[in-house]
Every structure is written in C-alpha cells, then in structure tokens.
Amino acid sequence: MRALISAAAAFALAAPAGAVVIITYEAPGVQNTTATFDFVGVETFDSRPTGTGLSFTTDFGGSEITGEYRNVQINDVDVFGGAGGTGKYAVTFSSTGYEILLSTSRPEGVNYFGYWLSALDGGNNVQFYKGADLVYSFTPAAVLAAIGSKPAYFCNPTGAFPDGNCREPYAFVNFYFTGGLTIDRILVFENPPVGGYESDNHTVGYFKTITGTPIPEPATWAMMIAGFGLVGAAMRRRLVPLPA
C-alpha cells in the first residue's frame, strides 16, 4: 500500500490537475487506430534498414511531429511482427530497451501514442515522460486481462504465416493523455525478458476523439490512480535470441 501511495504522489506531481490516461484497444485484426486527430503521423519502419542498436529520425510519414529513435532493433516481417504481413517492425529483447524522443512545432504538443502490439507477452513495458518526469508507466497485465480470454485476438491476423503464433494475442493499443497532459519521450523495454517486444505502426498526434474498447476496471482504476501498471502477468512464450 505504501508503494501505491508513493506512485500516486509521483504521478500527481508530474501531471496537470485533472489529467487522466485512458487506454483502449481496437477490434480484433485492426492494425491502426480508429481515433481522429488535429494532427497525426505514423512510423511504419518499412523504409528503415534492419539491424540492432539503430538510431534514426522520422517525421512519422510527413507529419508535424519529429521523432528520434535510439537503440531500436528493426526486423523484417515474420510471424511475430509486421503489420499487414509485409515490411518491417520494431523490437527489443532488452530490459534497457529503446527510446523515442518527440517534438513538434505545434503548441498543443503530443497527447496520443498508439501501436500495433503484436505477439504480446508479460514483459512488454512502456513508460511515458514529459521532460524529466515519468508521467505514466504501463505493463501488459491490463491488456492481457482484457483480451486474454478472447480467442479472436490470438494468432497473427495478417494471414501471411501458416502457424500464426496462436499462443499470443495481437492488438492495436491506444494511449490518450487528457487534461493538458502531453508527452515528449517514450521508453519501450522488455522486463522480465521472457521474449521479444514487437510492435509496428507507431502513431503519435493530438487526438480529437477517443475510440476503441476501454481497459476495464479494476485495472484502469489502478493505472489512473498510481500512474503505474501494477503487476505484470508473465506469459510462457518462446525465448528469441538476438540475430547474429
């Protein structure tokens, strides 16, 4: 309980009064957000070279937002990642992970992030920052609780791979930062290291409408109050080594 109170206090200091983080997930098979935006961009990774420890800048497909990726791994499409069954995707197998620095000339800032979270496992963590302040920390427990009993979310939905990896769920997840809360850095990491953290179609913007199915109580309540996903429910899955 003391840890919960401390986390809540940290969130309150970092976030504007009335700020709430709303998390939703899209319908089975959907690999892009259905939200609407004042301005938005998407990084698909398809034009990036494959490899480990990569750094690059992006305008998210010609948007008004600039992103700088640091220490990310880019893989060619396979059963674990690659929206639409083509192209490339981002992944990390590390507890240090990779980061995304965000900036925009728009005074509103960035208050939305979404991604196709493929081959979801219990180590898939993401943290959101504003300056030096950690404003929100997310573990996969809430999404696993929401979709883990829904067969429609399991198996790679692209149809491009015979085995489909039906041991793990695939879903597009939306993070909406409300009440004046904005973000400028995202840290993506795998902890515990039970496999890979695969994702694609990284979407950033300033949202107008909130869509998708909300993460249900009590998980949403815990995350709203504490600013932290509390317990990571680890799933058994393959251990994937880094490519040579």
How many strands, what sense, and barrel or not for the largest sheet? 13 strands, antiparallel
User: Which architecture per CATH?
Assistant: Sandwich
Distance between the termini: 44 Å
CATH hierarchy class name? Mainly Beta
Structure keywords:
38% strand, 13-stranded antiparallel β-sheet, disordered C terminus, Jelly Rolls, 244 residues, mainly beta
Could you characterize what this model shows?
The protein has three helices and 13 strands; from the N terminus they run H-E-E-E-E-E-E-E-E-E-H-E-E-E-E-H. The chain starts with a helix and ends in an 18-residue tail after the last helix. Residues 1-13 and 217-244 have low confidence and may be disordered. A hairpin with a 2-residue loop joins strand 8 and strand 9. It is mainly beta and 244 residues long. Strands 1, 2, 3, 4, 5, 6, 7, 8, 9, 10, 11, 12 and 13 form a 13-stranded antiparallel β-sheet that branches. The chain has one domain: Jelly Rolls (Sandwich), CATH 2.60.120.
SSE diagram, text form:
Layout: H1 2-14, E1 21-25, E2 36-43, E3 51-58, E4 65-76, E5 88-92, E6 98-104, E7 112-118, E8 124-130, E9 133-138, H2 141-147, E10 171-177, E11 185-190, E12 197-209, E13 213-214, H3 219-226
